[in-house]
Design brief:
Layout (H helix, E strand, L loop, with lengths): L1 E5 L3 H13 L4 E5 L6 H12 L4 E4 L2 H6 L2 E4 L15 H12 L9 E4 L4 H11 L5 E4 L3 H15 L6 E2 L2 E2 L7 E2 L5 E2 L2 E2 L6 H12 L1 H5 L8 H15 L4 E8 L12 E9 L2 E4 L7 H18 L4
Parallel strand pairs: 1-2, 1-4, 2-3, 4-5, 5-6
Antiparallel strand pairs: 7-10, 8-9, 10-11, 12-13, 13-14
Helix pairs in contact: 1-9, 4-5, 5-10, 6-7
Length: 300
């Protein structure tokens, strides 16, 4: 199996390491701006040798033949800057990279770069929607929210079920009506003020991490590789991921991507139909979609 990681910055390097730790007998290609990456490739080659995997750098043939492409390239959003502010530069980067190589028809492209919903749509659109392009989107936010609730309520993680959809950004939408702790709806356990606190912690997670780290990298790297693994799994699981709205029957907007609950497994991704939400949650989702639309369509 062949993997290409586009972008060898803070996140790209962690994704490379995570891929090599979770897959064996693979070929990993790193696609980055031309520069000396001899030390990086050598170090990762030594890591991959443990599991009979090989590592290459800027091999266009490998990139064109990759089964999975992890897209991490782009200008990082600065602290205090909205994701839309870096969007124009990142849209141009999409074009420059995929003018260098074309993915094979069956390649799955997993987008990590922000603004992730917009980047997901731009890549899919640039490739004429011929490839399956998904973004980590609110899958990371869902993991974060589960962690926040687990730590606060002091319960095992498997007891916490929740979902965050819409935009991976300030308008992300936690679906409290579908949030359960040990099969009991969270509204029966927690006050509204507690849920508001959870939402603030969730939306402030990235900023909090970057108080002492120069990037958020470990969580999103694990999530992106988990999505690839789950795609190959013979059993299905539900994750909220970014994908073009044309594939989501419950979303009337077109020409953008939205994070939405999807069944993933058996080499398929199937958006859930008739996902249950309250009227308030639908209103919040619509605000989230409008925010994505402002970024995605505003750059087109």
């Amino acid at each position: 199996m062949k993997f290409t990681v586009v972008g060898a910055g803070a996140v790209g390097k962690v994704i490379c390491q995570t891929i090599l730790a979770h897959f064996q007998n693979i070929e990993l290609n790193i696609h980055n701006r031309p520069k000396d990456a001899t030390g990086l490739v050598m170090d990762l080659e030594h890591a991959g040798a443990l599991y009979n995997s090989t590592v290459s750098f800027r091999d266009m043939t490998e990139a064109s033949e990759a089964d999975f492409i992890f897209f991490t390239a782009g200008r990082r959003t600065k602290i205090g800057e909205s994701r839309s502010e870096s969007a124009k530069e990142n849209q141009a980067i999409v074009r420059s990279i995929f003018e260098e190589f074309k993915p094979k028809p069956g390649a799955v492209i997993i987008v990590i770069s922000n603004p992730v919903e917009s980047m997901t749509y731009w890549i899919s659109d640039f490739l004429d929607h011929k490839n399956l392009v998904i973004g980590t989107g609110t899958a990371l936010d869902t993991v974060r929210l589960r962690s926040i609730i687990r730590l606060d309520r002091k319960v095992p993680l498997e007891k916490v079920k929740t979902m965050v959809i819409g935009e991976h950004g300030s308008t992300m939408t936690p679906i409290w009506s579908q949030t359960f702790i040990d099969e009991q709806n969270i509204h029966e356990i927690c006050s509204e003020s507690t849920l508001e606190r959870y939402t603030r912690e969730l939306k402030g997670s990235a900023t909090a991490i970057r108080q002492t780290e120069n990037a958020t990298r470990w969580g999103v790297s694990m999530v992106s590789v988990e999505l690839a693994k789950q795609f190959l799994n013979n059993e299905t699981k539900i994750y909220p991921i970014s994908l073009p709205a044309e594939r989501i029957n419950d979303i009337s907007e077109r020409g953008l991507a939205v994070s939405w609950p999807c069944k993933i497994g058996k080499r398929r991704i199937e958006p859930l139909a008739d996902f249950k939400m309250t009227a308030k949650e639908k209103e919040c989702l619509n605000l989230s979609i409008q925010s994505i639309k402002n970024t995605c369509l505003g750059m087109s």
